[in-house]
Design a protein that fits this description.
mainly alpha; 57% helix; single chain
Length: 84
């Protein structure tokens, strides 16, 4: 199981955002279309973000438009991984 014990909240937030758009980050690494370094960059970017509160709230909503919100610094990177 891939994870980031040094940044667990950022890992779960990044993974949660990815899952909303149909991206399974651990599977992407295992299948080779996302490197561990690229995944680490996504998690580090989330870790340095100041929007963890709004992110938690947004992910906890029962419904949304299944898109990464504009305040997420990983929006472009995650959307680039989304299936067509």
């Amino acid at each position: 199981m891939l994870g980031y014990p040094e940044a667990p909240r950022a890992w779960w937030l990044t993974r949660g955002m990815a899952r909303l758009i149909g991206v399974n980050l651990p599977q992407a690494v295992v299948e080779g279309w996302l490197s561990r370094e690229e995944l680490a960059t996504l998690v580090m970017r989330c870790e340095s973000c100041t929007c963890h509160g709004p992110c938690d709230s947004w992910l906890a909503q029962p419904s949304h438009d299944e898109a990464v919100p504009g305040f997420c610094p990983n929006k472009p990177g995650l959307e680039a991984l989304a299936p067509n």
